[in-house]
Amino acid sequence: MQGGAAVELIALSKVYGRTVAVDRIDLKIPAGSYCCLLGPSGCGKTSTLRMIAGHEDVSSGDLLIGDAVVNEVPPARRGTAMMFQSYALFPHLDCVDNVAFSLKMKGMPAAERRERARAMLERVHMDAYAARLPAQLSGGQQQRVALARALITEPSVLLLDEPLSALDPFLRDRMREELKRLQTDLGITFIHVTHSQSEAMALADLVVVMNEGRIEQAAAPRDLYNTPRTAFVARFLGGHNVLDLGADGTVAVRADRIALGAADTPPPDADMHRTGTVRSFEYHGASVQISIDLADAADITVVLDESRYFATPFAVGDRVCAGWRHADVHPLRA
Questions:
Q1: One domain, residues 250 and 225
Q2: Which end is more exposed in the chain, N or C (fewer Cβ atoms within 10 Å of the end residue's Cβ)?
């Protein structure tokens, strides 16, 4: 398996008629990294992925894989492979022949391509199912076969279009681990489209948050979570409150950095505080999430450790004082 290639987008745009799907974005994805394109439906992430794959033409700008501009290069010559959301397995072929299909198209002898396909199935822990048809496999097993089929071409860049969306939560977590393991072992560049914040944060070295065809922020997961650049990023990632603090402008405060006290008693060490009414709470096991309506018609979310909450619980309708330190306030760009 060859190493990964860097991918660079320079003022890259995609226009469909009068609709601008991707609007002059600039992005550098280092070779051998795991990059997630994250955002809501219609933000441009899938159009970006399809341009990298060569399945959509570039409207303007440049797309580089390695050192080469590939705007006009056919998909088969880009050194990329795509794993589709639907998996797109051939229903009449067993796992071996599904994985070996691209090698067949290249004219590789049957014995050699089937041997390589079996080795790749072993790599994704599917060798025991080599003779089965796709209809005889679970969703997670089909996904592994589709992954093996993409990897057998030895791409320098693997493109994944929401590959976990069809799986149940337990299997999604298992496959998330498998994807990260494979990417680390193979050393190739993964570019993965998702609308799931938790998926992107768990998998990626680089998370690219997109909105309305533009990149709001691109950063490592921890940097993104601790220092969101805009209100959109703070809200979309979750776990943040976006507040207008007047002189401080619009800021983000992490939900787990806010403490609660009785209405007349600001929490200890709180430099800033507001009074409100408990609207609802949700028990999440290790934590409790509390929604509070503030007096100025805004609302905030507070996340408390389970033991801390139940030591002095609050009920819906209680008046409380939510407080936080100024050091935990992060200014946002307009």
A1: no
A2: C
Residue 249 amino acid letter:
G
Tokens of 168: 């149940």
CATH number of the domain encompassing residue 175: 3.40.50.300
Residue 221 · residue 201 · CB < 8 Å:
yes
Residue 13 lies in a domain: yes
Q: Are residues 219 and 251 in the same domain?
A: no
Rounded to two decimals, what is the model's pTM?
0.91
The angle at the Cα of 222, spanning 218 to 225, to the nearest 5 degrees, equals 75
Number of domains in the chain: 2
Q: Which residues make Cβ contacts (< 8 Å) with residue 247, sequence separation at least 6?
A: none
> How does DSSP assign 52-114, residue by residue?
HHTSS--SEEEEEETTEE-TTS-GGGTTEEEE-TT----TTS-HHHHHHHHHHHTT--HHHHH
Q: Do residues 180 and 262 share a domain?
A: no
- Of 184, 206, 231, the one marking the end of a domain is 231
pLDDT tens, residue order, the chain (334 aa): 567 999 999 999 999 999 999 999 999 999 999 999 999 999 999 999 999 999 999 999 999 999 999 999 999 899 999 988 778 899 999 999 999 999 998 899 999 999 999 999 998 889 999 999 999 998 888 988 999 999 998 999 999 998 888 778 888 888 888 899 889 999 999 999 999 999 999 999 999 999 999 999 999 999 999 999 999 999 999 899 999 878 778 999 999 999 999 888 889 889 999 999 999 999 999 999 999 998 776 799 999 999 989 998 999 999 999 999 999 999 998 6
Sheet holding 329-331, edge to edge: 240-244, 250-254, 329-331
* Domain annotation covers residue 2: no
Final residue of a structural domain among 209, 231, 253: 231
